[in-house]
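Here is a protein:
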Amino acid sequence: MWKLIVLFSIVTASPIGFSGVDLNPINQFAFKLLNNVYAFQDNFGQKNIAISPVSVWSLFALLAEGSTGDTFIELMRELRLPNDLRGTQDLHSALLNVLRSNDGDVILKGQSAMFADQTLNIHQEFCQSANYYKTDVYFVDPSNSTRLAEDINYYICVATEGRIREAVKAKHLEQLRMILIDALYFKASWTHPFDPTQTKEEAFYNSQGKTIGAVNMMYHKAPHNTGDSNLIGAQIIEMTYGKSEQFAMLILLPFDGMPLSRLLDNLATQPLDWLSEFKSGGNLPEIDCYIPRFKISAQTDLIPPLQYTGIQRIFDREKAELPGVSDSPLYVSKTLQNVEIEVTEEGTIAAASTVVGLEDRILGQRFEANKEFVFVVMDRSSNLVLFSGVYAQPEIV
């Protein structure tokens, strides 16, 4: 059985809506994956995570078109794919429309590619599907893994505008027949920037109220949607990007005394009504907002979390069924995601590769992210989650 590697290169972003297409199935997959990634990484003491679930969904949805049998059933079920090909293609078209934004305040773009062994007979139908989803197809000589790694890293470096320079090493590419890559780049300025002169070092706490470190806490007073969701057990604030305010980052603070793991479990299991129900509507109140300046750089092996979700056979060299891709038996041997996200007073820059004592000024509402929280970058018009993560290990940046 030949190996296939899946890589994701992501720079965080927020999406543009696509009328008539329900994107909630992708969000359901997104929050389940986030929960499983956190559970997996927590086993190794890694509490700060960032992923681009939409990127994972996109590439495995493409592989679903070349799968059969139980492999196909697992992918259809866990990716929440429609029962008809047209429905799946509509979802992909919606994502492609999301990944087109360059209005000065917000840059969002995506690229994907397939690097296949030049001796591998890729079925024409699968190449057509890849082209339909705007995936570049390259046939390469994999015998020189060093040169191939250089080519892939160059592709990802260009796609992420230099944020990700070494997504893969030559050792990752040995005995591989096909490599799928997805790259996203996101750079955005806040609609209401934070004043750097107000940033100050402050304590950061865990869910039990114990001090676990310190952060550079940013501050501003600005109009924001904010509210509580009893459905998931969190206080939520929405901070928008750009003049159009089409994109936003949500910060989700678990209710006092509630473990972060329970909030993540609620996100994975509860209906998505909370995405709109927490918003106040009408004239937004001025909020005293305290958010840490933070940066996360992480590499995640996504195979165990995806296996937790119920996608298993595609990673099994004996059981994977991908005859629609090639006559040669293939299975997915690696699924890597390198993510870098930076949140500052000016806005957000993020990248990922897979081969997210001030004076007391409060007279009104206050939102203070001084304990473990979940963050989500999304499109406000469709509520599509492009990027999500957890911040639970504080550091001064």
In short: The chain has a mean pLDDT of 85. The chain is about 25% helix and 35% strand. The domain at 196-292+358-391 is CATH 2.30.39.10 (Alpha-1-antitrypsin; domain 1).
